[in-house]
Amino acid sequence: MRNLCVKADIISTVEFNHTGELLATGDKGGRVVIFQREQEVCTEEQAPAVVLGSVLQVLKFNLPSFQSKNQVHRRGEYNVYSTFQSHEPEFDYLKSLEIEEKINKIRWLPQQNAAYFLLSTNDKTVKLWKVSERDKRPEGYNLKDEEGRLRDPATITTLRVPVLRPMDLMVEATPRRVFANAHTYHINSISVNSDYETYMSADDLRINLWNFEITNQSFNIVDIKPANMEELTEVITAAEFHPHHCNTFVYSSSKGTIRLCDMRASALCDRHTKFFEEPEDPSNRSFFSEIISSISDVKFSHSGRYIMTRDYLTVKVWDLNMENRPIETYQVHDYLRSKLCSLYENDCIFDKFECVWNGSDSVIMTGSYNNFFRMFDRNTKRDVTLEASRENSKPRAILKPRKVCVGGKRRKDEISVDSLDFSKKILHTAWHPSENIIAVAATNNLYIFQDKVN
């Protein structure tokens, strides 16, 4: 089957909910697709793929394990649960500016009742969505007939008690709040606070704090816009709340720095509490140094002790108690250092790769080119390169590690750095909060990999 990729179908964000039972994806067409994990145990005879239209495919393969062989795993396929249009394209007539419908980020709220809630954002507007199930419908209205038309009151001679009748299960997505008109620049991050009453949204120059109940007002907590825009030297690239302390958050910049802020210190966090920056090695200085040092993603560990950042070539882990250098640095694709000139010419050097922790903070994952993604075990220091591809993967087959050959004689199972396809890139990934299950977005395909059966 030919893989026809329409721009609107390219996946732009992936996110598991807090239990891992649901997985949401957003795309450039403004749609949100939610997958639900089936409760039944999955057998080898079951079909491992779900196709939504002809462009979104979910495949499941076995994942080389970094975890204990004695661990018990739950099995269950992820199938489409709900699909809805979250954002529509808009036009700002005052600025003559088109506002894309592309979903930049999705963040789940912890489940409090039978319904699910999630935040989704495009460049300008954040929306709070309620996703709920309905399997009963009321019948026996007094003022309406069975088709919903109003009845003539003169014809109503008796009163009846409406009853609830069973119906086919229907999943409804309804927008509960719309948070708009607070950002001049493009929103790059949203993060739900641990108090679950507030969240923040960040654009290139400002970070705003919102209350979930108030849509017409937000509080500006970071503003790095200079009085003269010609003096602008850096922009905000990502921001996230601490997982446990509701007063603490971090944001990263295009200069490769991370600032930790404490909202108890002042209402406007112009002065950071901690400043994380690695001194530059003068011997590695080049024309591209500033571009490749720009941080594209920042994530707190689940424990809250560490921060992980992703720049163009590396993933770094920082200890909150040590600001002068990272405690761990992992080379994602160091073989591209010699290709930076051509990557600059085709704009790939500006790609924004994300990074994720596993549930125990022991393994980290991030994407690369040629549909490769990398995993690093922090304890054993092992790393592996895997490929998300329809062509060389069969359902329930074990993924084989891939290796990139830089120069000299190429082995049979290696791929030359000159043969890498830079149009195929893994920018967005997600890790199940408690199990060894990952979701990888490869252009318009979503792959779900699980740990191998022990």
Automatic annotation (TrEMBL):
Keywords: Repeat, WD repeat. The keyword Cytoplasm does not apply. One of its GO terms (cellular component) is protein phosphatase type 2A complex. InterPro entries: PP2A_PR55, PP2A_PR55_CS, WD40/YVTN_repeat-like_dom_sf, WD40_repeat_dom_sf, WD40_rpt. GO terms for molecular function: enzyme-substrate adaptor activity; protein phosphatase regulator activity. GO terms for biological process: regulation of chromosome segregation. The keyword Repeat applies. It comes from the Eukaryota. SMART domains: WD40. PANTHER family: PROTEIN PHOSPHATASE PP2A REGULATORY SUBUNIT B. Belongs to the phosphatase 2A regulatory subunit B family. This is Serine/threonine-protein phosphatase 2A 55 kDa regulatory subunit B. It comes from Mus spicilegus (Mound-building mouse).
